[in-house]
Specification:
By secondary structure, this protein is mainly α. It has helices at residues 2-26, 34-58, 70-88, 94-105, 111-121, 126-134, 138-145, 164-167, 170-184, 192-202, 205-221, 229-254, 258-269, 276-282, 287-315. The protein has a single domain, classed as Na+/H+ antiporter like fold (Up-down Bundle).
């Protein structure tokens, strides 16, 4: 029960910051047009900073000799996730299919796992470094393929252009740079203040992202659009329950190392990536529905992630 409580409180902390973001926008503490600026700050500055500092301070190839396998495991995870997503998309009507599919496939691969890993294993855990290496190509996949999930009913006249700045994004560059520094042994020559600076900058990543999400939901709910209860429940059942159960079954058969099983499980159990509504708007899709998918998945994750973690712990007991 203690395990459930730790994971429960970790997820609740994330949701609480999102609620704060909703409140901040509702009270007019910051104007709505600041959300876009905060989003760039979080994605292009804060997130790369936490990745860089964590790898420099905690990455030890000798402790995890199979670190190079982690991106390969991510490819396998993405392939299985796609195999689940493609048939699942036919459970919804054509008018909802694009938003449903893109939200189902692209998981919140960093923010939820970070807070859960820190809650269970401490802020300096080696599992964080392994998470960053595992997820290194996830943003590349997202920015290079999200538009493929949209059909004619959404974005028919859109002409998406591959944004190389997003594909070769700061997180990818910083991850590769930090790993190269550690593997070459050059980290010992880095002045402490540089690593400390990136560490402090990275500390604002999660609060910023969740405040942005809460604020974005407030902006959307101001429009008072239709609430898609049935569609949201259907999405939550597949994303929050069916997805992790499938991966738990596969992990129990394959029996990989604990750190690999942990990261794959977390990827399967978390809600959608928070950047989806922006891309849905870009493609002319239903932004309100995308936001409701995310909100519903976030709220249900308060219970589903701790419950699924209990099942995971039965198969892979904490070392």
């Amino acid at each position: 029960m203690e395990l459930f409580n730790v994971v429960f409180q970790s997820v609740l902390a994330i949701i609480g910051i999102g609620v704060l973001g909703f409140y901040i926008l509702r009270r007019g503490i910051i104007p709505e047009n600041v959300i876009a600026v905060l989003s760039r700050l979080a994605i292009d500055i804060a997130l790369p900073s936490v990745v860089f500092a964590s790898i420099i301070m905690n990455f030890d190839p000798q402790k995890v000799p199979d670190w190079w396998q982690l991106p390969l495991w991510w490819f396998l995870f993405a392939a299985v996730a796609l195999a689940i997503t493609l048939p699942a998309r036919f459970l919804v009507r054509d008018t909802f299919r694009s938003e449903f599919t893109v939200s189902l496939f692209f998981q919140n691969g960093l923010f939820f796992p970070i807070i859960i890993i820190e809650g269970l294993y401490g802020p300096g855990s080696l599992y964080l470094v392994q998470l960053f290496i595992f997820i290194i190509f996830h943003p590349v996949l997202f920015f290079s393929t999200y538009y493929l999930f949209f059909g004619r009913q959404a974005g028919e006249n859109q002409q998406p252009v591959l944004n190389l700045q997003r594909i070769f994004n700061p997180v990818l560059i910083v991850t590769l740079l930090a790993m190269a520094i550690v593997l070459s042994g050059a980290e010992q020559y880095l002045p402490f203040f540089i690593v400390n600076m990136f560490d402090m900058l990275g500390a604002m990543t999660l609060p910023l992202i969740m405040i942005i999400l809460g604020g974005s939901l407030y902006i959307d709910f101001q429009k008072k659009g239709k609430i898609f209860f049935k569609e949201v429940l259907k999405f939550v059942a597949i994303k929050n329950i069916f997805f992790p159960l499938v991966f738990l079954g596969l992990l129990s058969l394959v029996q990989p190392s604990y750190h690999i099983a942990l990261i794959i499980f977390l990827q399967s159990a978390v809600p959608p990536i928070t950047g989806i509504p922006i891309r849905v708007a870009e493609m002319g899709g239903n932004v309100s529905l995308a936001n409701q998918y995310i909100l519903g998945s976030f709220l249900f994750s308060i219970i589903t992630i701790p419950a699924m973690f209990l099942l995971f712990n039965r198969i892979f007991p904490m070392p």
